[in-house]
Amino acid sequence: GLSGYRLLLIRKSAQHKFHRELSLPQLKRLLYAQGHDWVDTSIMRRNGFAVLGASNYEALFSMLEKGRVDAVPRNAAEVIPESLLFTEKDIVVEENWVFYYPTASYFFVNKSNTELATDLRQGLQQLIDDGRFETLFQTTFGAQLRQLELDKRKLIMLENPFLPPETPLQNKKLWYYQPSISQ
């Protein structure tokens, strides 16, 4: 569920537009860019945000650089590496806000390969149960998450109407939680 934590890439000079006292209706009136066919676009629109759909990845950052949009939401795993790619264009990670909606990542295998599906499910469950998954997660994402200081940001909870009903939201071992985020 880490990709459900969305941070904003913005022009450095636009940080004032995202001050901490901004209301939710004011945040919704800003213009965001996402891929036109991304589920994130539909989620944000369903939650009342103004989203401009881009035809390709590069167009997102071109629109941002030219001031045609206010922000490009990116997930917590990709926002820092992407901001580093655009440093010379004064594109930075916004400082005050984090959006969140539940979303899941799945492995898909050929439906006739039930043995592989079972092996993957059991192997991943064993990694979770014995703590190796958490160790790998922290090794991969821990430093980046600490750098993002999610606990100091204001959280905007979004509904995800596209999440399949069988998504195991109640299984806390399967989800990344940042419990001390401001609301």
Strand content: 15-25%
Number of E-type strands: 7
Distance between the termini: 19 Å
Largest β-sheet summary: 5 strands, mixed
Give the SSE order as H and E letters: EHEHEHEHEEHHE
Mean pLDDT equals: 92
Q: Helix proportion of residues, in percent? A: 25-40%
Outline: globular
Low-confidence stretches: none
Query: Roughly how many Å is the radius of gyration?
Result: 18 Å
Structural class: alpha/beta
The helix count comes to 6
Mind explaining what this structure looks like?
By secondary structure, the chain is α/β, with parallel strands linked by helices. The chain has helices at residues 24-29, 39-46, 57-65, 79-85, 114-129, 132-148; strands at residues 5-11, 31-35, 50-54, 72-75, 91-93, 97-100, 154-157. The strands form two sheets. Strands 1, 4, 5, 6 and 7 form a five-stranded mixed β-sheet that branches. A two-stranded parallel ribbon has the order 2-3. The longest helix has 17 residues, at 132-148. The protein starts with a strand and ends in a 26-residue tail after the last strand. The mean pLDDT is 92.
Summarize the structure.
By secondary structure, the protein is of the alpha/beta class. 34% of the residues lie in helices and 17% in strands. The longest helix is centred in the C-terminal third of the chain and has 17 residues, at 132-148.
Write a concise keyword list for the protein shown above:
183 residues, alpha/beta
